[in-house]
Amino acid sequence: MTSRLLLVGAGHAHMSVLRAFRQAPPPDTQIVLLTPYPRQVYSGMLPGWIAGHYTLDDCVIPLAPLLRGSPITVVSAHLQQLDLTTRTVTTDRGHRIEFDFISLDTGPAPEPDALPGLREHGLSIRPIENFISQWQQTLAVIDASARTGGDAATVTVVGGGAGGLEIALAAAWRARSGPPMRLQLVSGKAGVLAAFSPRVRRMAHQALKEMEVRLIEDDAVELGPDTVLLAEGGELSSNFSIVATGSVAARYPREAGLAVDERGFIEIDEFQLSTSHPFVFAAGDCASVVGHPRPKSGVYAVRAGPPLTENLRRAVAGRPLRRHVPQVRALYLLSTGRRHAIANWGGLSVEGDWVWRWKDHIDRRFMRSFGGSSG
């Protein structure tokens, strides 16, 4: 009897599944991939693209070459509704897809209302495809203004985590070769990299100083057309504001009736199965493993790919699943604008140009393994 497997999202974990199933598809299985985009943008290289170290092609994995010759059917649309009773998905383009098993790797959700005024006056880093096009348009506007004698634009990044830090430093480096920009980072009251060690935070502060990024350790509470309002009552001038705050769970898992954690992320067990529905798998930033809390990071999503692949094979074949416990520690490589980076592993931390070369090597190797053009 043929099983129907639906893969929703082409996130980091599903990339491993797609590559493996192209090479050796599970027998007697119809596989459908539901994704709104024809490519996967590798978030780990996005700051390098902002800084000007990479072309956009270096940072993306086109799905067509990866799937060429495979039995996987691609449906280009967004998931709109998940019905766990009928085991069907409805898309925003009117598709109705039935499944026996479903695997969800949809990442964190965009949060257009993360700050009042974000919809009208800000740029959100999610969805990443939207951010890419909006950032390109922003650079074009800044460049056009500079060519007509306008002042350097002030760009504000809101978010003191790794993403906010890397984007602010990358944009500051880009500004050195044009178009002209003044960068400021609103980190929140907890400061930059609050979850990291004091040593790593000192490195981050030094990088911000060297790149002439103004640091404001306060919470942003609202974006205006040319301002960022702060919790303590201050008001910052800002021509363009980028919001790079933490991950937010999508609404569809809770609305569908899946078990979710206190933040709304899909609860899964050590087999990567939903704790409430044994035909639903999930991986990456949309999920949380019960008993093994981990940060939302691409490192864990990439590592979840191979065991997810194995368990999907076993599920459609009716075989017992294998446990996967996510690693306790992850290597963080944080780029600092120029070709320089900070490495953190547990209590160990180092920095240098050689760390950036190491990160660059890892990133390019990852892209090549999926058929990306990064050389």
Describe the structure.
The structure is a single chain. This protein is α/β, with parallel strands linked by helices. It folds into two domains: about 5-35 and about 75-110 and about 245-315, FAD/NAD(P)-binding domain, CATH 3.50.50.60; about 120-245 and about 330-370, FAD/NAD(P)-binding domain, CATH 3.50.50. Helix content is about 30%, strand content about 25%. It has ten helices and 23 strands. The chain has a five-stranded parallel β-sheet with strand order 5-2-1-9-19, with helices on one face. A five-stranded parallel β-sheet has the order 10-17-11-12-13. Strands 6-7-8 form a three-stranded antiparallel β-sheet. Helix 1 (about 10-25) links the parallel strand 1 and strand 2. The radius of gyration is 21 Å and the shape is globular. The model has no long low-confidence stretch (mean pLDDT about 95).
Q: Which range best describes the helical content: under 10%, 10-25%, 25-40%, 40-55%, 55-70% or over 70%?
A: 25-40%
Overall pLDDT level: 94
CATH fold name of the largest domain? FAD/NAD(P)-binding domain
CATH class of the largest domain, named: Alpha Beta
Which helices and strands appear, and what pairs or packs with what?
Elements: E1 3-8, H1 12-23, E2 29-35, E3 39-41, H2 46-51, E4 60-62, H3 63-67, E5 73-76, E6 79-83, E7 88-91, E8 96-98, E9 101-104, H4 118-121, E10 122-124, H5 128-147, E11 153-158, H6 162-175, E12 181-186, H7 198-210, E13 214-216, E14 220-223, E15 227-230, E16 235-237, E17 240-243, H8 252-256, E18 266-268, E19 280-282, E20 287-289, H9 298-317, E21 332-336, E22 338-345, E23 348-352, H10 353-369
Parallel strand pairs: 1-2, 1-9, 2-5, 9-19, 10-17, 11-12, 11-17, 12-13, 18-20
Antiparallel strand pairs: 3-4, 6-7, 7-8, 14-15, 15-16, 21-22, 22-23
Helix pairs in contact: 1-9
